[in-house]
């Protein structure tokens, strides 16, 4: 085997490899010799088929297999001899000229091909103990607990039939048909839909126009969909709804006592409040974790600056760009609407893509150097948790992940990342900083960007 380096530029390498015809023929002959004792051919006793006869019958197909194996072995040797860590699978370019290919297959010419390799950069890890981070913390207040318990009570408030017109706070059951410019639109109709007047659960202006409606009465309700409405084809459009009230109900009294807590499956009011407090604390801790993790990743990015494999960066960019442009198309927005140009946006997202790849490589290097691993039990728990999100389809979800290695890897990756983050937070200096709820849940400028 003869190997010639054609390119050594950044993280890209390219080699020309020549595999002698005699070497390939010798391997093919060895393979055919192995076959001699296994094949059964009319006219020959078992094990007595001449190799020359086998070569006439199977020579080309065996040589093709030998060539495939030899190319893989040659590429592996190049990688091992140079100590490369691959960013992508080697890109092999075999001869395309039919005459050349036939000569190689017939064993009359050496096989000459090129192989392109993209390698991972050597990463020198920074001093993680030098990292200092502010971690926002927020204690759960009685006011938060009271607000949540009140929301729970409102969701469980009893209603009783009422005579007369509907007032704010009443529950009105309605059927409606919506239209835009006189044309009905998809999703604009509903039957027996309960609406609590004043709950702001419908389009702005819808509930207010139902105040005073009586059972059996039909009204035309005119509203305008918000500009940020989730159904982008309706966003910002004026619509008219023909609404008929089929039932009017007044809210009953709701006592926040032990009996109310028991109706929700709790022992008493104290237990309900404790559960609410625990749930709010989990939300605060998750938000705090997200912010301190973002700051940790920023610190890691500052400590590690190196060129990333171009193909990995391009793949990451394409994923981001396709997502961004698809969302903009759905919302019928342009780059001008976003206050930028396509060229500027591409440059910004290219930086984001390279940052993501760089941080991914850094986290992987940290995990490898410190033997951070994800156990099979941890992955199994993740699959079980995922299956629970699809009631009635647990077995199908389980089978999907059991048979799909790529899907299983998508569960393993975030577990690994969180374990590396935990490892780094143990080494870094983390300062707990009390904040308000507004500060904790405020969107960081970096997140907006």
TrEMBL record:
* Pfam entry (one): Trigger_N
Gene for this chain: tig
HAMAP family named among the record's database cross-references: Trigger_factor_Tig
Q: Which SUPFAM superfamilies match?
A: FKBP-like (SSF54534), Triger factor/SurA peptide-binding domain-like (SSF109998), Trigger factor ribosome-binding domain (SSF102735)
| Compartment list | Cytoplasm
Give residue ranges for domain PPIase FKBP-type.
169-229
Primary location class: cytoplasm
Read off the InterPro entries from this record: PPIase_dom_sf, PPIase_FKBP_dom, Trig_fac, Trigger_fac_C, Trigger_fac_C_sf, Trigger_fac_ribosome-bd_bac, Trigger_fac_ribosome-bd_sf, Trigger_fact/SurA_dom_sf
List, alphabetically, the NCBIfam families matched. tig (TIGR00115)
Keywords annotated in UniProt: Cell cycle, Cell division, Chaperone, Cytoplasm, Isomerase, Rotamase
The answer to whether the entry has keyword Cell cycle is yes
Instruction: State the family named in the UniProt similarity comment for this chain.
Output: Belongs to the FKBP-type PPIase family. Tig subfamily.
The terms under GO molecular function for this entry are:
peptidyl-prolyl cis-trans isomerase activity
**Its biological purpose:** Involved in protein export. Acts as a chaperone by maintaining the newly synthesized protein in an open conformation. Functions as a peptidyl-prolyl cis-trans isomerase.
Report the enzyme's class at the first EC level: isomerase
Q: Which organism is it from?
A: Ancylobacter radicis
Catalytic activity of the protein? [protein]-peptidylproline (omega=180) = [protein]-peptidylproline (omega=0)
This one is known as Trigger factor
- What's said on domains? Consists of 3 domains; the N-terminus binds the ribosome, the middle domain has PPIase activity, while the C-terminus has intrinsic chaperone activity on its own.
State its Enzyme Commission number(s): 5.2.1.8
Instruction: Enumerate the PROSITE patterns for this protein.
Output: FKBP_PPIASE
């Amino acid at each position: 085997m003869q190997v010639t380096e054609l390119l050594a530029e950044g993280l890209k390498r390219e080699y020309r490899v020549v595999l002698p015809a005699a070497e390939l023929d010798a391997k093919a002959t060895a393979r055919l010799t192995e076959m001699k004792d296994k094949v059964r051919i009319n006219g020959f006793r078992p094990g007595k088929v001449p190799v020359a006869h086998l070569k006439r019958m199977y020579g080309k197909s065996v040589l093709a297999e030998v060539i495939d194996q030899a190319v893989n072995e040659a590429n592996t040797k190049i990688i091992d001899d140079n100590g490369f860590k691959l960013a992508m699978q080697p890109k092999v370019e075999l001869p395309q000229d039919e005459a050349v290919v036939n000569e190689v297959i017939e064993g009359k010419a050496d096989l000459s091909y090129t192989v392109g390799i993209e390698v991972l950069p050597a990463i020198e890890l920074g001093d993680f103990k030098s990292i200092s981070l502010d971690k926002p913390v927020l204690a759960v207040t009685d006011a938060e607990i009271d607000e949540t318990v009140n929301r729970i009570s409102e969701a469980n408030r009893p209603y009783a039939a009422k005579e007369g017109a509907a007032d704010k706070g009443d529950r009105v059951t309605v059927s409606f048909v919506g239209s835009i410019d006189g044309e009905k639109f998809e999703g604009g109709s509903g039957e027996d839909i309960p609406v609590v007047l004043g709950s702001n659960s419908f389009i702005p202006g819808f509930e207010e126009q139902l105040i005073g409606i009586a059972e059996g009465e039909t009204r035309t309700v005119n509203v305008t969909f918000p500009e940020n409405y989730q159904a982008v084809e309706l966003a910002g459009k004026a619509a008219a709804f023909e609404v008929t009230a089929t039932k009017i109900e007044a809210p009953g009294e709701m006592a926040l006592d032990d009996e109310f807590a028991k109706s929700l499956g709790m022992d008493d009011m104290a237990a309900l409040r404790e559960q609410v407090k625990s749930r709010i604390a989990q939300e605060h801790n998750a938000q705090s974790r997200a912010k301190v993790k973002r700051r940790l990743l920023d610190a890691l990015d500052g400590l590690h600056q190196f060129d990333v494999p171009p193909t990995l960066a391009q793949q990451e960019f394409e994923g981001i760009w396709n997502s961004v442009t698809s969302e903009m198309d759905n919302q019928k927005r342009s780059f001008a609407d976003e206050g930028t140009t396509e060229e500027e946006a591409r440059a910004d997202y290219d930086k984001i893509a390279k940052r993501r790849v760089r941080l991914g490589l850094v986290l992987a290097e940290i995990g490898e150097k410190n033997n951070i691993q994800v156990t099979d039990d941890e992955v199994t728990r993740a699959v079980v948790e995922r299956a629970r999100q699809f009631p009635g389809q647990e077995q199908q979800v389980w089978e999907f992940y059991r048979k799909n290695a790529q899907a299983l890897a998508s569960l393993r990756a975030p577990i690994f990342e969180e374990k590396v983050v935990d490892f780094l937070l143990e080494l870094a200096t983390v300062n707990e900083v009390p904040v308000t709820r507004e500060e904790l849940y405020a969107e960081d400028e970096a997140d907006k960007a």
